[in-house]
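User: Fold this; tokens only.

Assistant: Input:
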Amino acid sequence: MKYRKLGNSGLSVANLTLGTMGFGKETPEAEAFAIIDAFLEAGGNMLDTADVYGGGASEELLGRWRASRSGAAVDKVVIATKARFGTGPDANDVGTSRRHLHRALDISLRRLGVEAIDLYQMHGWDPQTPVEETLTFLDAAVRAGKIHYVGLSNVTGWQLQLLLSTARAMGLQVPITLQQQYSLAYREIEYEVVPAAVHNGIGLLPWSPLAAGFLSGKFERGAGPGSDARLGSDNPMNQHIEKDLFGSERNWNTIEAVQAIAGEIGATPAQVSLSWVANRPAVTSTIIGARTMAQLTDNIAAADLYLEAAATATLDAVSAPTPDDYPYGPFGVLQRVRYIDSSAQALRELPA
């Protein structure tokens, strides 16, 4: 494993994070415990969960794992969890209001069996709550010793900048990380979110870096995901992802390039795909969602894999999103170009 600063903080984390969304539901407890132990033995140190994963089962499992272990194994772990989505039937059992976050944070602390959560992330944007309300609660929680660092997740570029700028203007705790979907199959955050993260020193924590298994190379062009695959479930989100993934010629071309590179360097497609995203600008740690020990073993090898420049360039080109509409297409790019040589500007030439 390689270690990097967690955003603009003094905390160091490994370049791979273990996601535990399926722990307590999809992965039996004994196997989940063994996966956590193996991840830590390999040098990993951050575990990511959320209060809604398995209806709280993931946090509870991590709490039991902590209680069953002692010493350095527990002390080294950086715990990251999230709050925002619905945890009950009441109208106020959702969002980033002061009331909901107060209750959600206390429940997460109890489930995890910790006095403070290392990274507390807002799981998504809440259009009903003023950002000032959310940020003042998080600042107070840091001052009270219940949170060490604040993170964000699933926001747009303008939402990220608003939250960061408001926190700075009010003298409040500034979020240091952003957890977003990012992979060779989903690169649209490069339009606005990645530049905003780079500008502000935010550490990106990509989720679904293998695009729900698509980039592991286990699917064939023209075939569906199969009933036993995660993508084949009845979850509406999974059905949407399946349509995006399997209906894109660009994605099939990308996975073929990944497979070719993997064959050339003696790696697996999953390792190549993970290495690509783990070494993108602003990325601090990539979240791997290993449901089995075999998946963990395969994914961990990507932590020390660096692709040659030619391989990276090939993947960059074949997976590049191709927007045609303003402000992201060629005409939109033209509006943001500034040349040192004014004659080039006069000719309205696009950059090479």
